[in-house]
Amino acid sequence: MIRMMEPTLRFDVLSLFPKTVDGFAEESILGRAVEKGLIEVNSLDLRRWAKGKHRETDDRPFGGGAGMVLKPEPLFDAIEEISNESTKVIYMAPDGENLNTQIAKELAQEKHLLLVSGHYEGIDQRVRDQLVDREVSIGDYVLTNGSLAASVLVDSVARHVPGVLGDEASLQDESFEDDLLSYPQYTRPHEYRGMKVPEVLLSGNHSQIKQWRDDQRVSKTKSLRPDLLNETN
Ligand code: ADE
Predict the structure, then answer these.
(1) Residue range 9-158, CATH number
(2) How far is the CA of 137 from the centre of ligand 1 (A)?
(3) Which residue is closest in CA terms to ligand 1's atom 4?
(4) Which residue of 39, 142, 156, 211 is 20 to 30 Å from 23, comparing CA positions?
(5) What does R_g of the chain's alpha carbons equal in angstroms?
(6) Would you say the CB of residue 140 lies under 6 angstroms from ligand 1?
(7) Which of 186, 178, 185 is nearest to 225 (CA)?
(8) Which atom number of ligand 1 is nearest to the Cα of residue 146?
(9) 65-112: per-residue pLDDT in tens?
């Protein structure tokens, strides 16, 4: 495809499992954002930068222990080749800071994100010390395939790039905006298996609907995620 303009945000995902990343960005909203040239998503196979007869990317940990560690040389070579002055290098790791809406919004301001996905017991610490700008976790559990974590980050960041969600308003009332969960949604039919849609939603009274939705957001957050509540909401 010939593109006349730079995308607003380019994601490069460097991993041992490029196929995990291929495909998901072709579907639905992200697919349209790629088509429109708003974002670009590339998956890069770390083996391309591995040297030697066996193109090894991992080795046993110094000091012993289970599993394998990704070697520094292919990672240094790859990151240095792919990076430019506007690149932010993000390492996806279970011991990174937990991904949330705030981080997704911050990363959506960047021009180029290079996401490094680990595997096995992680990557050589020297890569983290020297080349990584930020370390991000997608939750307190461990995946075997760090590319899944990178894919989650791409999706959550891309939707904050202007124009990606056709309807900008749809970002406003969703969960975690204002530290509140979203309100319940209903569509037709207005009665299904004896269950009725709350009358207020059929009233056409926009201020009452807004009040009901705001109340629902607060009560839902109180019961499901009280840790999110603060004095402002
Ligand atoms: N790699 C393995 N587990 C992960 C997690 N929870 N978050 C980010 N990267 C990971």
Answers:
(1) 3.40.1280.10
(2) 5
(3) 94
(4) 142
(5) 22
(6) no
(7) 178
(8) 1
(9) 999 999 999 999 999 999 999 999 999 999 999 999 999 999 999 999
* Ligand 1 atom closest to 140 (CA): 6
Domain parsing of the chain, residue ranges = 9-158, 173-228
70 lines ligand 1 (CB under 6 A): no
The amino acid at residue 20 is T
Q: How distant is the alpha carbon of residue 63 from its chain centre?
A: 34
| CA 138 / ligand 1 centre spacing (Å) | 6
The whole model's pTM is what? 0.92
Domain 173-228 indexed as CATH 3.60.15.10: no
- Taking CA atoms only, the protein residue closest to ligand 1 atom 7 is 137
- What does the block give as tokens for 40? 């670009």
Ligand 1: centre distance to CA 91 (Å): 9
Cα–Cα distance between 153 and 143 in angstroms, integer?
Answer: 14
Q: Which residue has the tokens 């919004």?
A: 105
Nearest CA, atom 10, ligand 1:
93
Contact by Cβ (8 Å): 46, 15: yes
pLDDT at 174: 82
Q: Crossing angle, helix 28-35 and helix 146-158, to 10 degrees?
A: 70
